[in-house]
Amino acid sequence: MSTTGQGGHGRARPRVARGAVGAADGLLLVDKPAGISSHDVVAAARRLAATRKVGHAGTLDPMATGLLVLGIGRATRLLTYLVGADKDYEATLRLGQETLTEDAEGEITAGAGCRPEDLPAALLSTALGSLTGEIMQVPSAVSAIKVGGVRSYARVRQGEAVELAARPVTVSSLDLRGQPRGATAADGTAVVDLDLGVSCSSGTYVRAIARDLGAALGCGAHLTALRRTRVGPFDVGEAKTLEALSAQVEADAASTRPGGLRVLGLSEAARRCFPAVELTEAEAGALGHGQALPASTLERAQAPAHPITPKSEASPGHQDSQEAAPGDAGPGPVVAGFAPDGAVVALLAARGSRARPVLVLAPA
């Protein structure tokens, strides 16, 4: 893989091979490198998959590396549900300096300094504990949240002071990895670098964790490195680099019978993400045509090892023919229904006394 053109902030976009044929519907797990945007990765995936129908289940900042979950073809319709999956990160924080963007890309705004001897184990443990569990977190000011119709990060970069409301998030674990390391910043400030493992709910800002830990310790802090290692049931160990994906597509294109970019198939992806119910031929046929089934159908569902909890059961754009009738109970957990041949037919959820499809995935 080489680079060409310019991405955001003058970064070079990756150049990858073009697929000889369109990829199958499914998920693509990419190990994003530092220095390019998530949208650059999506653009590369469109070329690799030989289709414009590519979307993502949550972005990473350009400085961050690790797992991006992309949807190809009909699998883009699953992304609404994957956005809410819990995530794991490996993060490095620098204590003793604050920056405008709360990460290493922003200008330094304060430098109180910090030394390892300033961080007794009890103090650090208490500070980390205060940021663990169900907490109210003020999002990073340099975020995509809109304030008066304008992205917060755009206002900050224009010199405005932005105050965002705190939001509920869950930080399941915030673990110290190794010992704090004393260092000297480029401007001569004594600082401490800290490695953390973070498990958190969707919508959690790791930069904000760095900011708040620095505030709790009284020395200020910012994020210097971030790697996403898990999204729901998907691990970065399963992901491929753009270089590896490009090489696979090149080799495939040179073969006598190209099959296109290899992806995690739609049915396997659904089975890993949602409780699965095995349908009869009659049930699969009805569900594939948007018809509801008895709610008791859902009692046969078997949960996967790491089911995701969608942020919302379905967005308006992803509703199919059967919707909850007035007075019906709200949606229950989303379940994937599979035909006898193993193909996913639809996602369904309880609506009152019926199990109704919220997303039909069977080909029309």
From TrEMBL:
It holds the Pfam family TruB_C_2. The keyword tRNA processing applies. InterPro entries: PsdUridine_synth_cat_dom_sf, PsdUridine_synth_N, PUA_sf, tRNA_psdUridine_synth_TruB, TruB_C. Residues 324-334 have a biased composition (Low complexity). Residues 46-206 form the Pseudouridine synthase II N-terminal domain. The active site is at residue 61. Residues 301-334 are annotated as: Disordered. GO terms for molecular function: RNA binding; tRNA pseudouridine(55) synthase activity. Residues 207-250 form the tRNA pseudouridylate synthase B C-terminal domain. It comes from the Bacteria. It catalyses: uridine(55) in tRNA = pseudouridine(55) in tRNA. Keywords: Isomerase, tRNA processing. Its EC number is 5.4.99.25. One of its GO terms (biological process) is mRNA pseudouridine synthesis. Responsible for synthesis of pseudouridine from uracil-55 in the psi GC loop of transfer RNAs. PANTHER family: PSEUDOURIDYLATE SYNTHASE TRUB1 (PTHR13767:SF2), TRNA-PSEUDOURIDINE SYNTHASE (PTHR13767). NCBIfam families: TruB. Belongs to the pseudouridine synthase TruB family. Type 1 subfamily. This is tRNA pseudouridine synthase B. The lineage of its organism: Bacteria, Bacillati, Actinomycetota, Actinomycetes, Actinomycetales.
